């Protein structure tokens, strides 16, 4: 097989792992609550900044700062859902869209006031380092993120299938009224779900921080990509985030290699349009969240 093609596929899989890592939380929140979180990118931004400041002040490696980002974002997400988003649950979906878009604007602008418009980055000993295998280059940081994406997908499946809280979340996603009759506190489950989705997203923000530009305005791009990934894989279906991310990453990498980098952006929306027309339920179809 052509070495250029193999390299493009590897680059695409690693890029897809990045996409999957920060799309899983988006898919979880939609699958349980039916909310398209337009502030999703800001959760990634907060996770990345958590990693950045821990690196600046304590020289803590971004991958070791990920648990701190998860705890911070879980607390933030839980409180936002419990005291803000819960007020519009059960109302027309447009209300949650407006509210999460307002949250996107608020968080981004507060971050700009605190951290300014400056671009920041994290430079570690392995920044830019690659593993050379059979003439192929594999960036260490992206490889770690790819492994994290696999772990997050498996970890979410295990949590949802094997824990009492996970079963309550699945029951709420399938039929919230029946779950309520069985004694499930729907409002609390929604808050836990949003907090868990935010925690996973904060984790992804931390693990991508070694190789992305960090700024208060970075969120919108990530929200758009996450939306495309979960639509491609299957809205609300956790494994779909991994499949959608890998598919989109490979498609973009091949387009950038054999066409040009600008076309790879257009490819994203072409694939999204074709999927919505041909198979609106996504590659794997919409099923249970797990």
Could you characterize the architecture of this molecule?
The protein has 290 residues and is mostly helical. The protein has one domain: ABC transporter involved in vitamin B12 uptake, BtuC (Orthogonal Bundle), CATH 1.10.3470. Helix content is 72%, strand content 3%. It contains 11 helices and 2 strands. Strands 1-2 form a two-stranded antiparallel sheet. β1 and β2 (136-139) form a beta hairpin. α2 packs across α9 and α10 (238-258) crosses α11 (261-278). The longest helix is centred in the first third of the chain and has 31 residues, at 3-33. The chain is globular, with a radius of gyration of 19 Å. The mean pLDDT is 90.
How much β-strand is present in the residues?
under 5%
SSE pattern, N- to C-terminal: HHHHEEHHHHHHH
Helix segment tally: 11
Residue runs with pLDDT of under 50 for 5 or more positions:
none
Looking at the structure, what is the overall shape?
Answer: globular
What is the overall pLDDT average?
A: 90
> What is the count of structural domains?
1
What's the end-to-end separation, in Å? 36 Å
From the alpha-carbon coordinates, what is the Rg to the nearest angstrom?
19 Å
Structural class estimated from helices and strands: mainly alpha
């Amino acid at each position: 097989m052509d070495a250029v093609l193999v390299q493009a596929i590897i680059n695409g899989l690693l890029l897809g792992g990045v996409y999957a890592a920060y799309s899983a939380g988006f898919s979880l929140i939609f699958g349980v609550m039916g909310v398209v979180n337009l502030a999703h990118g800001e959760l990634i931004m907060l996770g990345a900044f958590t990693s950045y400041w821990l690196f600046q002040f304590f020289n803590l490696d971004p991958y070791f700062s990920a648990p701190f980002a998860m705890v911070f974002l879980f607390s933030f997400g839980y409180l936002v859902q419990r005291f803000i988003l819960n007020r519009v649950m059960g109302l027309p979906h447009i209300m949650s869209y407006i509210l999460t878009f307002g949250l996107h604007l608020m968080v981004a602008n507060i971050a700009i006031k605190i951290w300014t418009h400056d671009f920041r980055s994290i430079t570690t000993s392995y920044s830019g380092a690659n593993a050379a295998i059979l003439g192929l280059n594999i960036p260490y940081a992206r490889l770690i993120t790819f492994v994290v994406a696999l772990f997050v997908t498996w970890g979410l499946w295990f949590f949802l299938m094997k824990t009492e809280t996970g079963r309550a979340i699945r029951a709420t996603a399938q039929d919230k009224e029946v779950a309520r009759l069985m004694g499930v506190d729907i409002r609390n489950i929604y808050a836990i779900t949003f907090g868990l989705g935010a925690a996973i997203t904060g984790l992804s923000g931390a693990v991508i921080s070694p190789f992305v530009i960090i700024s208060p305005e970075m969120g919108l791009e990530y929200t758009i990509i996450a939306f495309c990934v979960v639509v491609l894989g299957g809205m609300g279906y956790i494994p779909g985030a991994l499949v959608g991310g890998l598919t989109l990453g490979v498609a973009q990498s091949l387009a950038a290699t054999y066409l040009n980098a600008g076309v790879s952006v257009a490819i994203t929306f072409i694939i999204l349009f074709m999927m919505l027309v041909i198979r609106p339920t996504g590659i794997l179809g919409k099923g249970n969240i797990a």
